[in-house]
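[INFO] parsing input record for DinB family protein
[DEBUG] input buffer:
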Amino acid sequence: MSEQQDTSCLGSLIEENRLALYQLQAFLERLTPDLYRYAFGPTGRQSLGKHVRHILDHYDALLAGAVAGSIDYENRQRDERLETEPELAVVRVAEISAALPGLEAQRSATLRLRYPVEGASDSLALATSLPRELAFLTSHTVHHMALLGMMAESLGVDLPEHFGVHPSTLRHWQRQTEEISQERRETA
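[DEBUG] output buffer:
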């Protein structure tokens, strides 16, 4: 893919992320604080809130890194209030969603991704691009939303339609539906 094609998809990638965040916000609005903080697993280290905070940390790292020219997902803010206060998480999701279109101004920025390697004296500085990082965040977010969905369902929480389903899967399902419809029209 050429550099021009690479950045031409930026708006679509931003919108994919905003859609995931919209779904996350709708999910959060259904949760009580007790459900949000509920401790899962034998050690109690997992909660809906911890996964949400993790997702939001990654967006914060991208937004800060896009301006600075260096993205570091390893050294995140980790605001623990986002793990325990669902109403604060809802506000932060809305803020991030509103900030994402501003990345258009960084369309041609040269970006580096800081990535620590065990045993190395310093982190690697990998060349990356805004579209690549937005594609990563879509997958990362939807992956954690799928985990959130499984956890929430075990607590009896109803999920928004297609919650935790990657856009590529939704496109696949759409193509399958269209193919079935076409086959039915041809055999009718």
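[INFO] The first helix runs from residue 3 to 8.
[INFO] shutting down worker
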